[in-house]
Write a structure and sequence with these properties.
Length: 85
């Protein structure tokens, strides 16, 4: 995901995006975006009743950090499975 986000950094999508634009930008389903919003895992701003927007710069940073965390988790899982204790 991170690499795609970096490629899209200079795209024509505005700095403030709707959920369908975010889903397209990061190649995720809208239901996955809704889940991340409802669980508070993804940064967003609420504009009113049922209306949310996403700041592109904050999302790119969030996905960068998330990607780094996932790499560590995968590496630690690999180490645990392949340990010789």
């Amino acid at each position: 995901m991170l690499h795609y986000a970096q490629k899209r950094r200079d795209s024509t999508i505005s700095e403030i995006s709707k959920r369908n634009e975010v889903a397209e930008m990061f190649k995720m389903s809208i239901s996955k975006i809704d889940y991340l919003v409802s669980t508070g895992h993804i940064p967003f701003s609420r504009l009113g009743k049922g209306s949310i927007r996403f700041d592109k710069a904050r999302l790119v940073e969030w996905f960068r950090v998330f990607d780094e965390k996932m790499k560590r988790v995968r590496f630690n899982d690999f180490r645990q499975k392949n340990s010789r204790f």
